[in-house]
Amino acid sequence: MVGTCCALYLQREGYQVTLVDRKRPGEEASFGNLACFGIASCVPPAMPGILKKVPGMLLDPSAPLKLRWRDAIPALPWFLRYLANTRPERIEAIAAARQSLLNRVHETLDPLVREAGAEALINKGGLIFTFESEEAYRNASYAFDIRRRNGVRMDVIDGNQARELEPALSRDIVRAVRVPDLAHTYNPGNLVRSFAALFERNGGAFLQAGVNGFDLGAGGVKALVTDRGRLPFDAVVIAAGVWSGTLTKMLGTSVPLAAERGYHVMFHGTGVKLNSAILSADRYVSVTPMDYGVRVGGTAEFAAADAPLNQATARMMRSIGEKLVPALADDPGKEITSWVGSRPSHPDSKPAIGRAPKQNNVFFAFGHDHLGLTMGPITGKLIAEIVAGRTPSVDLEPFRPDRF
Description:
The protein is 35% helix and 25% strand. It is of the alpha+beta class. The radius of gyration is 21 Å and the shape is globular.
């Protein structure tokens, strides 16, 4: 999503653009995410008090945080920086920075949706946060206070009111918070593909190739070295998700980018009907209606990007989904599939957007944490503004690539 939107907005500035990817657009994390445009997601994943919870979460098979022990030592420096960002003053600053991008989501997304003819892929039914106890609701109060202070419109309702909106919800839901202005896509992979098709219709080129390196010259970087040959350019944007760190290292810049892996379980062809996206605040799991069934997903598993899918985690996802929406157990659908993909996460839960520290003609656009689908369009617009030499429409100081 991020790379395709950068290509589209650069194209709108009049540039001739080639989009390079080892796969077709929309086949990595943009395919498997939970499909929401998270305008209420200013709150970073790491909150005060998480350090005390980590040991229990790592030992609890049903917890949302997972760490493969063989990856624990290599991940330690990243985790120490991550924990340093859980101080309340850092949380407030990170939330404000994230919201500065989230406020611009629809003004940059909606024109692309219209131009691509993808309106049928968008559901504006809102998001419902659910709670299975009053204690869980009270424990979440700080996070919701942050959202309110950052201008997110929300309505607090009880469990019965939540079931009036979503009759399929479990009777265990006692409290809910509804975000009425939040939209999701029925098919994130198809949405990205529709944007890529728009890009190609407008004269953009797509090269399916792996990038093995860069040709460096006195004035900067001259070309990509791909497994399909050398590709000269005037400027390049690195928007390769979790693999961006490998590319930046080739250019002499190391970034603390972790593979924070998310899972989903897809109930294909189920007859269960949902009007909006649902996010269990107790279980950190989302349930999203898609155009081919219902998707249940979540977790933050820290492991190598190419590590195999953990079947136990996938089974846990299915079990939680069936608890939140019991009808899924009665009507699971024609097929149930599992997926895992890697989110590119920085320890301060903010993307890198801007000019590379060491090359004037290289630009970074990666590290969007759980929000690549959401922040792709505004990131694309900002990158296009920087490349064109204009003042960016959002203050990019919090997202400087050299801040690490």
